[in-house]
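Please, structure for the following, as tokens.
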Amino acid sequence: MKHIGKAVWNGSLKEGNGIMCTGSGVLLDTPYTFKTRFEGEKGTNPDELIAAAHAGCFAMALSMILGKEGFTPEYLKTKAEVTMDAEKLELTASHI
């Protein structure tokens, strides 16, 4: 399986802006900026999407593990928090 995500960024880091898209079209030209990523302005950002992906993958994996043991969960609720070193622009942790 292969899945595609795309992004376009225009301009400088602080004054620029970008859009993100997914191959499925769920995200289609979804805007993001320095402010949505680093200053808490309403809107999405790459780090938030990584956290959602981690939470979703974990919930599916746990459901699979429980299923192999004969259990079917009614529901699983998962939260992931990713931490970024803003100086280096690198993700340093993901806690589920």
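Helices lie at 34-38, 46-68. Strands lie at 5-10, 17-22, 30-33, 81-85, 90-95.
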